[in-house]
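Protocol step 4 of 6: structure prediction from sequence.
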Amino acid sequence: MASHEKETEATEYYLPSKAFCKWHRMVFPESPNHPTLSQARTLKKYFSSLDRREMHRISRLLSDEEVFGTYKRWSSEYRTMWKLWIERKGTDLAIVFVNKSQ
């Protein structure tokens, strides 16, 4: 991982819930159950800052009208883009804090 990526990962990246919903529709267009804004608030917390940054980048590739305003199904281009991102970035490191007083 490059040093700028380490700095980026150390800083929490804010992803708007609407952008998460948009990203989900773009990457998983065939899914019958896309997250609501309320569900997106919870789901996006399961991804790393770098993942959220990439989700935001992908969500900006199409306008809101193209994603939310039509029932058009596009190709798997955005899913492929996401899969390549996951493969390139490698594994995430999880840090878990344990309360020993219990």
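Step 5 (inspection) to follow. The chain has a mean pLDDT of 84.
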